[in-house]
Amino acid sequence: MEHNFTWKNDGRTKVMIGCGTRPEIIRLAAVIKRCREYFDCCVVYYNQNWDRNLSTVFWEDFELKNTFGEYGPDILVPVVGENLGVTCGNILGRSFELLSELQPEGYLVLGDTNSCLSAISAKRLHIPLFHMEAGNRCKDECLPEETNRRIVDVISDVNMCYSEFARKYLADTGLPKERTYQTGSPMAEVLHMNLDKIQKSDVLERLCLEKDKYILLSAHREENIDSEKNFLSLFTAINALAEKYDMPILYSCHPRSKHRLEKSGFQLDPRVRVNEPLGFNDYNKLQMNALAIVSDSGTLPEESSFYLSIGHPIAAVCIRTSTERPEALEAGDFILAGITTRELLNATDMAIEMKQKGVLGKPCSDYVDETVSMKVVRIIQGYVNVVNKMVWRKY
């Protein structure tokens, strides 16, 4: 595989980080910076999210430079094929080739995307494998991520969980407790790192929006977009929401979702404004000033908890029928709304009214820890040799 990356060979541990989507860049932002500080580090991007607004802009937002001094990963690996099978095959084949060539001393992945399946290559090559966001479960087999989670959890040498719920799920499956750690979510550190930029964003002026006079929408998950039944149910509910509140609903719309809307011919209410995907700082500025946020994003509960912790609560409404973040639900940080008109209207009404009355949840302790990147690099440093000795018996 053609690339220009070479290790510095400065005596530090050689760590490769594999990612392939916008959420991974966001969640790994602080960890990547910390790894570059303490390791001989290589960041590989498998380019699942190939659109500039879903990839390049985020390297720039977080000022994540590669070893060549440019914004972006060290190695860009194209993997997207004409179907899921080809894409997954490309991820496995090309990650195996790359890992075989560069032979990192540790391989780090986060979450449950198809890019995380590159972990299989690391495992087969006996490279110590570290998994952040381990143990998340929504118990819904219709979600493709649920399969990926189980695969990566089981094969990882060290699992790093956000919460005690996640750690318990792993323990219940029989995975070794001595190599499972609860680190908390990296999102608070990432949000705090960019808070000044978020607050200085002029996105409201650029989009002609006023505080508390719009609703922010993000709907992109496969189960909401690709299923005809769920798609029609959700967007019928969105139209009803626009009619009830009679204000702009700004839809940060991914290319896949936009294509689905165009192909279906579904007529959105004129008050629903379809916008290109927004950068991290702009999107969070919009979240902080929206009347409500209606989203199927996995980061919504964590963002809601963070904003609550800094005294700026948001009305967070999750348009899903399941969640892998029960700890945030338990803390009252968001409402699980479902995707029908009745469910969405009731949940949005409740979220807005509770915010206005100051009837709030409490910050989830797992989501407000700003030392996660430090924990991650220490765990990696401590366990590379342990895994090589105890698992692979290299010495």
UniProtKB/TrEMBL annotation:
Q: Does the keyword Isomerase apply?
A: yes
- Gene3D superfamilies attached to this UniProt entry: Glycogen Phosphorylase B
Q: Which InterPro entries match?
A: UDP_GlcNAc_Epimerase_2_dom (IPR003331), WecB-like (IPR029767)
Pfam families registered for this protein in UniProt: Epimerase_2
**UDP-N-acetylglucosamine 2-epimerase domain ranges (all copies):** 37-380
Q: Which UniProt keywords apply?
A: Isomerase
The answer, when asked if Nucleotide-binding is one of the entry's keywords, is no
Please list the GO terms describing molecular function: isomerase activity
Family from the record: Belongs to the UDP-N-acetylglucosamine 2-epimerase family.
Protein name as annotated: UDP-N-acetyl glucosamine 2-epimerase
Annotated source species: Ruthenibacterium lactatiformans
